[in-house]
């Protein structure tokens, strides 16, 4: 045939396309669907309205291959190899009973009666394992982040998964199936209202199983929990060092802690301020890494860095180069200056010394004096800011707030020990002042002796 017109060509093409479609539709409508459980038996019925049966043939079509199961011809029944023990024919109506089903028995079964193509019937058989109890678990359920709840069946193939939250059906578009065994429920921006009891019902043609899970959305991601812990520890450090700063100031002028003990208290207090500033700075950096940079965090970070440097230098000098400190004061009026400064750790606060004799310029001295109390205040303010933000973030989830009591108590106990030891030593010294006998005081006195000028006339008397 010659085609002279494109329209004719199109018609031919369409006809070519439509014919197979029509055939497929016929097959589809003729197809019966059956499901059965592994290990059970199934009776596949032959064509209904056939009164006289003289031949029957059953075939199994899986994929493209076709296997004859049995042939029946004038009372002569032949059952083929793998089916000998499992297949039974009801010769009166052409029905096939298939026993001990396996998953490999799934596929299309075709029966042809009386060798007539018209009297054939196809049945689609699905042999399924019953679904096992689904496993439910959640992934990444942190407030404001996207999370998911997963439902997986280990055994058997599930055709349908349905989800419920607190007994209410969830719309099917909230979840999707990844395979016959896994369904994922998405929580796009996890929030408090997503907390609750979720259940997943996995079912196939022969069975269903349901499992529930209590889902909680954590307010704080692990890094934010770290920020909280670090901030809390920073505040404890600051509080203990604040105690070390305030305590001597509150003592009466005459009984003030001084000498070697004062040196250790100063070094320890400055060291604590330095470490608490490092901790507060770290908390700020971790916070910004999670939440992005913000000016409200960067500015205190700069001041904290400043406090870290100053308090480190002071603590280092007081600990390892006390002579520098003494030198620094020796040219000054020591009798008046030392007792007055003794009250305030991070010593070169109010050195009434000659400007020219100092190893640091005068403004530096002043800044150092404010560094410790200022650092304590800064650490408390920035850490409180972080803790407030973290508490707000925590409120967006539904888990219990992190318990930091143990952390606070243990840190405080450990940090307070050296201060307590210093005070204990100091009080023993006070006792010695009356009784003139104490090892602590001896040490203190030896330090006093090393000073070019006696620090306190009371002591040497
Ligand atoms: C065919 O016959 C057998 C027994 O003769 C009977 O158990 C079965 O139900 C029949 N099947 C149909 C589809 O009628
Ligand atoms: C069986 O009955 C259906 C209608 O119920 C009919 O369409 C079909 O042709 C019949 N088959 C035979 C073999 O008589
Ligand atoms: C078809 O079924 C037979 C058993 O009836 C099995 O041995 C064979 O592996 C199956 N083939 C496919 C492609 O599933
Ligand atoms: C039955 O069929 C087998 C082979 O299919 C054949 O050898 C045998 O002669 C047949 N018996 C009768 C009685 O038709
Ligand atoms: C689970 O799903 C199956 C099939 O959809 C249904 O028959 C069954 O009632 C469901 N179970 C529950 C507890 O809703
Ligand atoms: C979920 O929590 C409720 C109470 O809050 C409890 O009664 C229930 O047993 C829990 N369910 C599971 C699966 O843990």
TrEMBL record:
One Pfam family name is: Ig_3
Protein's UniProt keywords contain Glycoprotein: yes
Q: Which UniProt keywords apply?
A: Glycoprotein, Membrane, Signal, Transmembrane, Transmembrane helix
Q: Where is the Ig-like domain?
A: 130-216
Q: Where in the cell is it found?
A: Membrane
Main location class: membrane
| Keyword hit for Membrane | yes
Recorded hits in InterPro entries, A to Z, give: CD2/SLAM_rcpt, Ig-like_dom, Ig-like_dom_sf, Ig-like_fold, Ig_sub
A biological process (GO) annotation for this entry? immune response
The Gene Ontology CC terms held by the record are:
cell-cell junction; membrane
The region annotated as signal peptide is: 1-24
Where do transmembrane segments lie in this chain?
227-249, 261-288, 294-320, 368-387, 407-426
Q: Record's Gene3D superfamilies?
A: Immunoglobulins
Give the top-rank taxon of the lineage listed in the UniProt record for this protein. Answer: Eukaryota
PANTHER family (alphabetical): HEPATIC AND GLIAL CELL ADHESION MOLECULE, SIGNALING LYMPHOCYTIC ACTIVATION MOLECULE
Protein name per the record: Ig-like domain-containing protein
């Amino acid at each position: 045939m010659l085609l002279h017109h494109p329209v004719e060509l199109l018609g031919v093409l369409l006809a070519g396309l439509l014919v197979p479609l029509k055939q497929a539709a016929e097959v589809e409508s003729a197809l019966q669907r059956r499901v059965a459980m592994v290990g059970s038996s199934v009776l596949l019925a032959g064509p209904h309205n056939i009164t006289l049966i003289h031949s029957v043939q059953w075939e199994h079509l899986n994929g493209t291959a076709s296997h004859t199961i049995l042939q029946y011809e004038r009372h002569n029944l032949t059952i083929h190899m793998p089916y000998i023990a499992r297949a039974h024919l009801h010769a009166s109506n052409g029905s096939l009973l298939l026993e001990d089903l396996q998953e490999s028995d799934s596929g299309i079964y075709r029966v042809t009666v009386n060798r007539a193509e018209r009297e054939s019937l196809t049945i689609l058989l699905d042999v399924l394992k019953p679904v096992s109890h689904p496993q439910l678990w959640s992934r990444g359920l942190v407030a404001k982040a996207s999370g998911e709840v997963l439902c997986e069946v280990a055994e058997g193939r599930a055709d349908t998964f349905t989800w419920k939250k607190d007994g209410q059906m969830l719309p099917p578009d909230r979840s999707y199936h990844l395979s016959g065994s896994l369904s994922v429920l998405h929580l796009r921006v996890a929030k408090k209202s997503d907390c609750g009891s979720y259940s997943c019902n996995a079912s196939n043609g022969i069975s269903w199983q349901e499992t529930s899970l209590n889902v909680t959305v954590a307010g704080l991601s692990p890094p934010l929990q770290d920020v909280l812990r670090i901030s809390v520890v920073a505040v404890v450090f600051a509080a203990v060092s604040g105690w070390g700063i305030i305590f001597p100031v509150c003592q009466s002028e005459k009984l003030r802690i001084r000498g070697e003990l004062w040196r250790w208290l100063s070094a320890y207090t400055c060291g604590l301020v330095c470490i608490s500033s490092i901790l507060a700075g770290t908390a700020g950096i971790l916070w910004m890494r999670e939440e992005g940079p913000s000016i409200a965090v960067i500015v205190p970070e700069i001041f904290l860095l400043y406090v870290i440097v100053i308090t480190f230098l002071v603590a280092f000098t007081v600990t390892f180069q006390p002579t520098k400190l003494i030198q620094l004061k020796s040219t000054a009026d020591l009798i008046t200056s030392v007792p007055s400064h003794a009250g305030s750790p991070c010593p070169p606060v109010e050195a009434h010394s000659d400007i020219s004799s100092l190893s640091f310029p005068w403004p530096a001295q002043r800044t150092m004096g404010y560094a410790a109390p200022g650092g304590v205040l800064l650490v408390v303010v920035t850490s409180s800011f972080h803790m407030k933000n973290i508490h707000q973030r925590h409120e967006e989830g539904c888990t219990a707030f992190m318990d930091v009591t143990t952390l606070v108590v243990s840190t405080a106990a450990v940090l307070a020990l050296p201060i307590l030891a210093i005070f204990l030593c100091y009080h023993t010294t006070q006792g010695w002042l009356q009784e003139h006998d104490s090892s602590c005081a001896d040490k203190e006195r030896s330090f006093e002796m090393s000073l070019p000028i006696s620090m306190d006339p009371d002591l040497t008397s």
